[in-house]
Amino acid sequence: MTQADLTRERLVRAALELFTTQGYHETTTPQIAKKAGVAEGTIYRHFTGKQHFFNELYRAAARWATKLVRDADALKVGPREKLAELARELVAGAVREPAVARLFFVQRHDDLLDDESRKAGRDFRLGLESLIAQGKADGSVKPGAAEVWAGVWLAVLTLAID
Length: 162
What we know:
Helix content: over 70%
Largest sheet: none
Shape: elongated
Order of helices and strands: HHHHHHHH
Number of strands: 0
Strand content: under 5%
Structural class: mainly alpha
CATH topology of the largest domain: Tetracycline Repressor, domain 2
CATH class of the largest domain: Mainly Alpha
CATH architecture of the largest domain: Orthogonal Bundle
């Protein structure tokens, strides 16, 4: 890793911690820089501003969660087992990287998300809804809209993560 990569990683770690413990609006770029051990101007070598920084973190979290949905969907098991495996992997990931999971699943920040971040979150949700629809098709998920059951599933998962 280059020095720039290491600096970016320190910034990411600092911002994740601050955004998920203090909140986005209460976190300042000087606080992020101080926690990362860099000058505030260093942030702007990597990100155009605090909101851009936040969106980069959100998209990375969404990509992680979406990959787990795809991995679960690829398993050669039934939908019920796929959903169980997805839940196990998401909770295990939340144990390893609690700030990433809190940023994506627990905190509400729709007003901060740009179009690319909204799409990343939607990709996760659509993948989950597809797994739910598979369960509806084989009878392992009760009748009802896949969107509703996905919301219920996510609410339970969010409680487990939080």
